[in-house]
Amino acid sequence: MEAPPVSVLPITGGTINMMEYLLQGSVLDQALESLLHRLRGLCDNMEPETFADHELVYLLKGQQGNPFLLRARRSLSHPTVPWHLRYLGQPEVGDKSRHALVRNCVDVATSHSLPDFLNEMGFRMDHEFVAKGHIFRRGVLKVVVSKLSRILVPGNTENTEPLSLSYLVELSVLAPAGQDTMSEDMRSFAEQLKPLVHLEKIDPKRHM
Amino acid sequence: SNLSFFVSVQQREEKLLDASVESLISRVAHLKNALHSFIYKLENEYERLTWPSVLDNFALLSGQLNTINKLLRNEKTPSFRQQIIIPLLLSPDRDEELAKLTEQRVPVFSHEIVPDHLRTKPDPEVEEQEKQLSAEAARIGPEVAQKQIQTLNKLCSNLLEKLNNPRDDRDADSAAIRQNKPSFNPADTNALVAAVGFGKGLSKCRPPGPVAPGHTGQGPMMSGGPTLQQVTIGGGSGQQQGMGPGAPQQQGQPGKMPCNIKTNIKAASSMHPYNR
């Protein structure tokens, strides 16, 4: 089930259909410091920003077709901050030469009653994980370096175990639909992170 | 005849002085133009300005200053310090000739501007700084100064050596080091992307990895801890996540093993992951 196309969505307050451009890679734990050092040099000069988030992924099973997926995220380091709900569409198949993964993206902030609400709507939590790491920005580009951990006891975010010996590195930009200049900038930024990290367009369907 | 010889020497010296002043004026004009265009770039094109371009500008200025220094040090150049400039006529009236010569910077040759334009001593702040530096230099003594000079020279020559060595050598060395210490593992990348993309390896109802022979990259991800099944059975609170109305099956994804953990399928409203 995909979100309906822009033309069908009600126009409320002039919201624009946003697309997320994404490149992903990873870095081994032992090379993390080098990567952070390089990012500190390449990215905007700001206080180093770390985060600790708990993400819950909800599925709504329809009669047929793929289930509808929503991602709910809350901050473990700032428990009173609103929850964040995100919808990510299927990656746009188009230009093979386009350097980044492009998909529809809808973000909203919600209150803390989000899990209850989703359950009432009929969603079921499919999986959850904890992500901790660092955020960097360079203009509109956002770089997130995160350690993903699985939650061993449902709902207990203290008891986690890392998923791998690497950190996930994601370079993303949120831009209105139609603006295709992003992927070039992303590609040149990705070049600067080589050979520490290889950021590429990875189609998640390939790894199912 | 002694007098005529003296006069001709004087004439030659005057000509030399004129020539070197001319050439100094032209060098300084080049420097001024370079500074002018650099300042313009900094003020108006700073968004497009790249660091190498800035360095180029500084290099140009440095070269021009070097040229001026060389000119001043040249033995053919008469010593300017020994020349004395005396203003012969000061007037509060505008002097068009002077204004044209100085590009409108000095329109009047009056009592106000002369002390600044004809000054021979450095600015008071500069004088103060120079005094401090001289005092510092005198304070540390010749041996310490010599050691500092030697250290600086050694650092510079080390750096120059590193920079001048052929790039191929350096690249070969670093390539070898890089091969020994990889900084990323593609298998990890795939595992993490799959986890964050659709929960591979995270969902309680899915086995830790596909059985299909094509996917051999699961090793690094799973080596860190117990497999999913062990974890769920051992540590679970006994309440399993209901996957909604319907048994936990393949969910339309080919190649996945069906879930072999028994789940309690309860009515939706009575199940909540966060029991309150």
From TrEMBL, chain A:
<dbReference type="GO" id="GO:0006369">
    <property type="term" value="P:termination of RNA polymerase II transcription"/>
</dbReference>
<keyword id="KW-0805">Transcription regulation</keyword>
<dbReference type="GO" id="GO:0006357">
    <property type="term" value="P:regulation of transcription by RNA polymerase II"/>
</dbReference>
<comment type="function">
    <text>Component of the Mediator complex, a coactivator involved in the regulated transcription of nearly all RNA polymerase II-dependent genes. Mediator functions as a bridge to convey information from gene-specific regulatory proteins to the basal RNA polymerase II transcription machinery. Mediator is recruited to promoters by direct interactions with regulatory proteins and serves as a scaffold for the assembly of a functional preinitiation complex with RNA polymerase II and the general transcription factors.</text>
</comment>
<protein>
    <recommendedName>
        <fullName>Mediator of RNA polymerase II transcription subunit 18</fullName>
    </recommendedName>
</protein>
<comment type="subunit">
    <text>Component of the Mediator complex.</text>
</comment>
<dbReference type="GO" id="GO:0003712">
    <property type="term" value="F:transcription coregulator activity"/>
</dbReference>
<keyword id="KW-0010">Activator</keyword>
<dbReference type="Pfam" id="PF09637">
    <property type="entry name" value="Med18"/>
</dbReference>
<dbReference type="GO" id="GO:0016592">
    <property type="term" value="C:mediator complex"/>
</dbReference>
<comment type="similarity">
    <text>Belongs to the Mediator complex subunit 18 family.</text>
</comment>
<dbReference type="InterPro" id="IPR019095">
    <property type="entry name" value="Mediator_Med18"/>
</dbReference>
<keyword id="KW-0804">Transcription</keyword>
<dbReference type="GO" id="GO:0070847">
    <property type="term" value="C:core mediator complex"/>
</dbReference>
<keyword id="KW-0539">Nucleus</keyword>
TrEMBL record, chain B:
<feature type="compositionally biased region" description="Low complexity">
    <location>
        <begin position="246"/>
        <end position="255"/>
    </location>
</feature>
<feature type="region of interest" description="Disordered">
    <location>
        <begin position="211"/>
        <end position="260"/>
    </location>
</feature>
<dbReference type="GO" id="GO:0006357">
    <property type="term" value="P:regulation of transcription by RNA polymerase II"/>
</dbReference>
<dbReference type="GO" id="GO:0003712">
    <property type="term" value="F:transcription coregulator activity"/>
</dbReference>
<comment type="function">
    <text>Component of the Mediator complex, a coactivator involved in the regulated transcription of nearly all RNA polymerase II-dependent genes. Mediator functions as a bridge to convey information from gene-specific regulatory proteins to the basal RNA polymerase II transcription machinery. Mediator is recruited to promoters by direct interactions with regulatory proteins and serves as a scaffold for the assembly of a functional preinitiation complex with RNA polymerase II and the general transcription factors.</text>
</comment>
<protein>
    <recommendedName>
        <fullName>Mediator of RNA polymerase II transcription subunit 8</fullName>
    </recommendedName>
</protein>
<dbReference type="GO" id="GO:0016592">
    <property type="term" value="C:mediator complex"/>
</dbReference>
<keyword id="KW-0010">Activator</keyword>
<dbReference type="GO" id="GO:0000978">
    <property type="term" value="F:RNA polymerase II cis-regulatory region sequence-specific DNA binding"/>
</dbReference>
<keyword id="KW-0804">Transcription</keyword>
<dbReference type="GO" id="GO:0070847">
    <property type="term" value="C:core mediator complex"/>
</dbReference>
<keyword id="KW-0805">Transcription regulation</keyword>
<dbReference type="InterPro" id="IPR019364">
    <property type="entry name" value="Mediatior_Med8_fun/met"/>
</dbReference>
<comment type="subunit">
    <text>Component of the Mediator complex.</text>
</comment>
<comment type="similarity">
    <text>Belongs to the Mediator complex subunit 8 family.</text>
</comment>
<dbReference type="Pfam" id="PF10232">
    <property type="entry name" value="Med8"/>
</dbReference>
<keyword id="KW-0539">Nucleus</keyword>
<feature type="compositionally biased region" description="Gly residues">
    <location>
        <begin position="233"/>
        <end position="245"/>
    </location>
</feature>
